[in-house]
Amino acid sequence: MFDLPSWLKLNKNWVPSQVHIREGWITVDIFRETATRKHRVSSYREIEHSEPLMIEDLKAHLFSYFINRKRYVFKDISSHFITSASRKYNLSPQQVIGQYIDAGYLGKETTFQRDGLTVADTRYGLTSRALHEVKQLKEALVHKNNDWIEEMKEELNSLRELFRNEYTVEQQQLMDFVATRLKECEEEGKSHLWPSLSWTYSREAKPGYYQKAIEFILSLLHCMYKAEVFDWKEIGSRLNPSIGASKQFDPIKDDLLNLLEQITQKEPEQLGIISLGSLYSVYISGSMAFETNHYSQALSGDSVHCLSNIQIQQIQAIQTTASRVILTENRSILLKMYKTRWVNSSRSLVLGLDGHLRAAHRHLITSLMEHALSMPFFIWVDGDASGRDIAANLVKIVPKAKIIGIQNGELRLYDTLYEWMDNTEYQDTEQESVMGGVKQWEFLFCSENSRLPTPHPHTPNE
Predict the structure, then answer these.
(1) What are phi and psi of 134, to 5 degrees?
(2) pTM higher than 0.70
(3) Phi and psi dihedrals of 395, rounded to 5?
């Protein structure tokens, strides 16, 4: 017996015809019947004998897209569901739809004008078979999620018993966070599958990462109970000693560390994480001296210096003769300012972020601010989503920092993040598109008229 998909609603006086099977297609015409007239209003068709998908991942794409949606139909190939699959699997939109139709997952409805022949519109939707699979998958996931919630509750209760109410402020904050979020998951799960909880901690957090966040915090609390200091890898293996478990949180490390900072307002080292399990370089141009518990080091202003994140995290005190600090997303600006000797002559300190604002950058920027509260900071990043995200996070650390953008093809400064973000000319533009040169930099960073657009000595690439 053939069933029309549930999204295909029949209005009053609409009657489906008998099922017709011809050349491998199942077709059902839908007629509107009145006392004096009967005419075809639409036609639904789907494949009779389905074939396996050429790309198996397309099935997962379909189910992950529709599992939390109330509408199982889309109008045309411009649908986000189709275009995202097209980009991901290097297929044309028509090929994506063809794959799903041939596999029996999509059907097509055609509506007609009053003559019953002229096509008025078309749309695609899940077949009854696909809807049934989505329903089964959803029920299985609900059951799995409920089991996970109970498991995490038990883990939290066992931690409370271990600590015996002798918590630090940060440990209490972390436990309260987990308890609140588990309750939210429980409430959300009564209606649907947690599509986008309000407490997601990353701008582009993927579905399911909030589960990793809770597991991470519980593992961290176990480490806090066992020892005063511990390594990043220990957190991953605390609740799961199997091979490879120590790396389970690595793909979202930055997001998890940001979450910790949001909850506790503490750096990872202050929570006992002495090593983040990674080693990266921070590039600096300009004069700076610092001290750690073990040694002191001076960086000359006429060179580019490379410090590891471990060195920077050990800095206890810092000094600089610089008149300003420039924070640049890409290394090319730093190198050009060094090569033209402007860094040294202008007594500037340039810090390269290399596309990511990380813990070592935060520590260095905070240390510089503590050394010279009145020293001006400047932010220079790309105009894309990633650059805007970096700028927003930098402004949280340095609220009075000015931001560099482009207006009428020229460099200029903006006093606030919102003013800079409103500049549509700079959106999706790389900072290298207008790097400027010594004259522009002097005007931008050293002039009292920095609110005005850069004057017109056309030397954008000195």
Answers:
(1) -60, -45
(2) no
(3) -65, -30
Place of tokens 């699959």: 85
Secondary structure (DSSP) of 282-338: EEEES-EEEE-SS-EEEE-TTSEEEEEHHHHHT--EEE---SEEEEESSHHHHHHHH
Q: What residues are paired with 123 via a beta bridge?
A: 109
Q: CA-to-CA distance for 213 and 252, rounded, in angstroms?
A: 9
Dig out the tokens for 261 from the structure: 């900072």
- Would you call 60 exposed, middle or buried from its count of C-beta atoms within 10 A (0-12, 13-18, 19+)? exposed
Residue of 347, 354, 338, 396 whose CA lies nearest to 375? 347
Q: Where are the domains of the chain?
A: 14-126, 138-275, 281-446
**pLDDT, mean of residues 32-60:** 88
CA 384 – CA 427 distance, rounded (Å): 6
In 10 A of CB 418, how many CB atoms?
10
Transcribe 18-54 into DSSP letters.
--EEETTEEEEEEEEE-SS-EEEEEEEEEESS----S
Highest mean pLDDT among 180-184, 194-198, 457-461: 180-184
Rg (alpha carbons) of the chain, rounded to whole number: 30
Q: Is the dihedral of CA 358, 359, 363, 366 positive or negative?
A: positive
Q: What is the pLDDT of residues 71-128, one digit of tens each?
A: 888 887 778 889 988 988 889 999 999 999 999 999 999 999 988 899 999 999 999 9
How big is the chain, counted in residues? 462
pLDDT at 201 over 80: no
Helix H or strand E segment including 73: strand 73-74
Beta strands, E only, 357-417:
377-380, 402-407, 410-414
* Amino acid residing at 321: T
Residue 53: C-alpha distances to residues 88, 157, 411 (Å): 15, 46, 51
Average pLDDT, the chain: 84
CATH of domain 281-446: 3.40.1360.10
Alpha carbon distances (Å) from 22 to 27, 45, 47, 174, 261: 8, 11, 10, 62, 63
Beta 106-112 vs 38-47: how paired, if at all? antiparallel
The 10s digit of each residue's pLDDT in 337-383 is: 999 999 999 999 999 998 888 878 988 999 999 887 789 999 999 88
For the ranges 12-16, 50-54, 436-440, which has the lowest average pLDDT?
50-54
